Amino acid sequence: MVTTPSTKPPKKRTWKFWVLRSLFVLLLIGAVWLVNLIWFRPFNIRHFYDRVFVATVLRSPELTTLLGLPVLYDWTKDEWDNVSDAQQRRNFEQVKEDYQTLLRYDVESQSPENKLNTSILGWYMKLQVDREPFFYHDYPLNQMGGVQSAVPDLLVDKHQLRTKSDIDAYITRLNGIPIKFDQVLEGLKIREQKGIIPPKFVIGQVLTQMKTFIDGGVYKNPLYTNYIHKTAKLQDVSADEKAAYSKQVAEAIQHSVFNAYQKLIEYNEGLYARSTNDAGVWKLPNGDAFYRYQLRLHTTTNLGPDEIHQIGLTEVNRITAEMRTILQRQGYTDTTQTVQVIMQRLSHEFRFLFPETPAGKQMILARFKQLLDEADKRVGVAFDMRPKASLTVEPVPLFKQAGEALGRYQMPALDGSKGGVFVANLRSSAEHPTFGMKTLAYHEGIPGHHFQVGIQTELNRTAEPRLPIFRTVIPFTAYDEGWALYSEKLAYELGFYQNDPFGNLGRLQAELFRAVRLVVDTGIHHKRWTREAAITYMVANTGRSESEVTTEVERYCVMPGQACSYKIGMMKILELREKAKRSLGSRFDLKQFHRVVLANGAMPLPVLEETVNNWIEQSKS
Ligand SMILES: [Zn+2]
């Protein structure tokens, strides 16, 4: 039996602190309630929506730090989330209770807006509640994340060091790491007893990460260099105080942090010896049911693994054939070579590459800007709704280049103080052959993530009536990645690839990649493919390098079902558009369709379908 450390380290806190903190919490909840009381009918369901959101933030000091919430940040900056088994159970019970509360509201008597609010939040909560039989079905430590990387990341990236109180909190957090790691260890042992053990290749990478972290010693450790770097210029802390603090920081790292890592390393070395290389979750207890749950969680549909596998195979064939036709028209007629091999060769052709120099990289950045400016002007034919937020193009900072994707979208600030950003990774010009650039720009920027996420984050300010805050942040990957993928195709339909057969090949290559994911994810977790078989299939069908594909496959192993959300979401949006066209004939309006899809922010696909169906019915009359 594993025991949880039940006592927290003593804190230098007075009764005043606790009274103030309680008052503050009451005030915050009171303010929300008051706002509802004033603006809406008392005991309105909207009070409940906000309460759920506020309660989630209050439960998590780490989330508060990550979001950088003013005031609240200072109250909880020296704490970690309690991840003990008992606390996670309590959190789960709370979610169940909240869901029951939501169900007790009389839905029929609500306004259409609140019906939609309830439907979206209800979906989201039910997906959480349905996890109950699979409460332990995950790998808390894996190569993509876990405390071994999340804890230092939070301290380095998000924990502020501007005042003495910030430094005190930093040291308290360092010394709190052993308790946090013990809680994680407790969870790992429970999982091991239940036969939930990550594949050997996952444990091996986690071990490497942890050993690398402590290998360099205290003074080269990022937790130490971060402290030195951030406090160097502080005016309010004297040189003597800084020296005393740095000693405390070093001691905390040496004793608390390194010992905590050492303990996790020892346990995982034992686990490594007891693990196998089986890659899929079929190997877990009740693994097939778990995978079905994961597919529902990520796609928000009831599509089973065999169906998704088949959809993937069909799409891979269709897209590969389309690419073959285009390649042949462009003179690549050697049919003894696969499409993927020809695409590989294409990406090395001089005519498609920018120079591998700072000037070449500036040209890439300028090209992305130009593409997005043009898209912004041309999408007007298909949209009468746009985000207010601006879109800029920025390069990934040098020190982050190695670990980041080729491009990503950074959402605007919720208060509108900063616009959206398309962040391009310029570590190597060779990674941006010209024929792939349009698709990346349309996906991340316009009309992709920037339009969808931008509109969603503004719902709380622009929609009439004002939407509850949860609607601006709630994620449904099938919807938001589905939209971004749909945008790639929409750009093609709008003529953005006219007279650009190679750009169109780049688009199809990107679509093919998402279709391959359907085959590989279901292959690993349902059809019991090995990691190696998955890599072989993926190299052959995407033409990407083995190292790149290996990272992908290992990601699917620890995030079952996630990789299926993109293509399934896109296909649903296309299907709904076709249905609307068929039903409305000449009355179909593309601008209106896009408004219906985007104006409500992220939704589960069945709710989106219902919304589109309602619109079709209204438009008919
Ligand atoms: Zn995306």
Automatic annotation (TrEMBL):
The chain crosses the membrane at residues 18-40. The keyword Transmembrane applies. InterPro entries: DUF885. It comes from Spirosoma validum. This is DUF885 domain-containing protein. Keywords: Membrane, Transmembrane, Transmembrane helix.
